[in-house]
Amino acid sequence: MGTLKHPVVEDRIIQGEGTALEVWQQSQHLHHLKALELSKTFPLNSRICIVAPHPDDEILGCGGLIQQLDLAGYEIVLFAVTNGTASHPNSRLYTPEQLDHIRPRETMNALEVLDLKQSIQRIALNIQDGEVAQQREQLAAALKPYLQANDMLVTTFEHDGHPDHEITGQVCKQLAAMLSLKCLQVLIWAWHWASPGDARIPWHKALKLELNPKQLARKTKAMQCFKSQLEPDPSTGKAPIVSSNALTRLLQPWEVYIDDEGHL
Ligand SMILES: [Zn+2]
Asked: What is the pLDDT of residues 164-187, one digit of tens each?
């Protein structure tokens, strides 16, 4: 998810506990979203590039999708925009140097818990955590050489409320347009600040992926690998980066993707 030093987007400020899970669970609006059908959305033989701003976004956002794509035989590559080294400022327990190793390892452990048929390659793009906005060009330049004609990009929503998520979404969308690739954007922080039917989310372009109980259980178990994000830091006295409420809200039997195809 990533720590927030300063919310840059004033109408999508992330604060407090956010929208209650029950509000989403009871939402008729969410219930009636168009279903994401794997074979319709992802052409056969396409390679799926998951572009995650921070280690944990790939699971929080796409832990269900990754399992379903893998089961259907799609090749998946994970691009890690940052290594999430800015999550614990002033910590003696988690220094940036330590996080540089810890957080990528947490991702790899989490992918293993998903019990996939393939082993997913993780490619680090080495952008500085918390500074994706300042390194927008570097991100595009780092990602572009890896992209192939049969790629589909899956990344964070360009209006997700967190600067790193937003810039990553924007850069992927621009690259996709430039290279005539398709790009889907997953909601992560939006579950916090938005509400059902919220006009700031383009619901008419949204596709809902349903997770079966087994897939949700694996995603939930995989998230437990991100201990650096889920446990308090006694060296700074700070609460966990991802609160248990936020985690519960993100571990629901659905993932929602914004698909621009046909709506441009
Ligand atoms: Zn993130």
From this structure: 999 999 999 999 999 999 999 999
Token duo for residue 162 = 């967190």
Distance 189 CA to ligand 1 centre (A): 8
Whole-angstrom CA distances from 171 to 150, 167, 236 are 18, 6, 34
Query: Distance from the CA of 35 to the center of ligand 1, in angstroms?
Result: 25
Total-model pTM: 0.95
β-sheet with 182-186: strand ranges across: 34-35, 206-210, 254-259, 182-186, 151-156, 47-52, 75-80, 121-124
Average pLDDT for the chain? 94
Domains, the chain, ordered by start: 36-259 (3.40.50.10320)
Distance 83 CA to ligand 1 centre (A): 10
Percentage above 70 pLDDT, the chain: 96
- The rounded Å distance from CA 165 to ligand 1 centre is 6
Position 7 pLDDT exceeds 60: no
Full DSSP string of 54-114? STTHHHHHHHHHHHHHHHTT-EEEEEES---TTSSTT-SSS-HHHHHHHHHHHHHHHHHHT
Report the separation in Å between the CA atom of 82 and the middle of ligand 1, taken as the mean of its atom positions. Answer: 9
